[in-house]
User: Which sequence fits this backbone?
């Protein structure tokens, strides 16, 4: 099987896709397990995820993959933001980390 493209999606987007698929037909065992997981661990709604994504994209310093990581985890501390972004080999200065964290904190429940 050839991979044509790759797109990173948030947990809430994946949850929404599986919920739509469930309405159309029965989910496979793996899909149902994934949906159960997403219902427990998706921290934001799809709408909130989209808003947060737009705000983080507007900063102009993060890739799509980094933005999805931040949305899925919704960090509340600078160290967590640094840890998430260090996996992607991105070093932000202190002010940039604070800006990213400020956006994330808007969506903490």
Assistant:
């Amino acid at each position: 099987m050839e991979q044509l493209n790759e797109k990173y999606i948030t947990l809430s987007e994946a949850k929404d896709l599986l919920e739509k698929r469930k309405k159309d037909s029965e989910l496979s065992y793996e899909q149902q397990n994934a949906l159960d997981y997403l219902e427990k661990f998706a921290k934001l709604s799809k709408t909130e995820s989209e808003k947060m994504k737009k705000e983080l994209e507007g900063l102009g310093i993060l890739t799509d993959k980094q933005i999805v990581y931040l949305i899925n985890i919704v960090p509340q501390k600078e160290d967590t933001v640094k840890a998430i972004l260090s996996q992607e080999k991105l070093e932000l200065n202190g002010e940039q980390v604070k800006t990213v964290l400020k956006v994330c904190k808007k969506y903490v429940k």
In short: The chain has a mean pLDDT of 92.
